[in-house]
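Example record

The entry below shows one chain as it appears in the dataset: sequence first, then structure tokens.
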Amino acid sequence: MKFFRYITDQGQPEHGVQVGQSIFPLKDITTTEALEFLIEGSDQWKSILEQPPISIESISYLPPVESPGAFLDFYTFEQHVKISREKRNLKMVPEWYQHPVWYNGSTRCFSGDGAVVNFPVGETKKDFELELAIVIKSKCFCVGEKEASKYIGAYTIVNDFSARELQGKIMRIGLGPAKAKDFNTGLGPCMVTPDEIGDPRDLTMRAWINDELWSEGNSGSSHYTFEQMIAYASENQTLYPGDILASGTVGSGCGLEQDRFLRKGDKVVLEIEKIGQLTHWIG
């Protein structure tokens, strides 16, 4: 099932689910409540069919997760890690193969499908990053890898926009990307429940810039699984419903690896099989 958040012509944020080519509104619920009854098969589902569908042309998409408590962006694709480190004259470290590490991203800068992205003033190396993400559906603490899949509520797409020139400067300090990431992160266009995804380690991932294919990869090329990420992240902290865990960038899934970057007016389209397309415009 595909779950959306959107805003109507009247300016009212709503939640909805896709049935065929229509979106049916879910009234007066939070993202967490929607996840609970959509995934668990609650009888509340029947009530939305009595409401008229929403015209796609009359809405603008919002990030599908409302006010996530945490955004953990991992670093799991070896090709991307190797090439990105080579660009900084760094070699792979053995610890990368031992721990699925992440950085804590901002939960306040998510943008939905169709949004305009404004980079920090003066940035000359504007970049995108093509990532698969999961949404946690229930509270978990010290969860083992074998049981971790039970906590995956949905899948979605993340575009981890990156100000590379700024990132290159501030990461020399040693505390992470910070301002080079916290201006905008694309999320959407929807959340898709696991029953529609099938095998999450066999999804084709593509990125187009102005209709030119820049990237094509597969989710299964990640060194770590989402189950491993959940297990490691929940060892000493609690994950809550609505928390977002992203895979990191698929190999070739950014401009940095290709020494070419975005420019004002560019159209960026990320696509992940069985989820859809997430589109942004560069301001």
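Notes for this example: The mean pLDDT is 93. The domain at 71-282 is CATH 3.90.850.10 (Fumarylacetoacetate hydrolase; domain 2).
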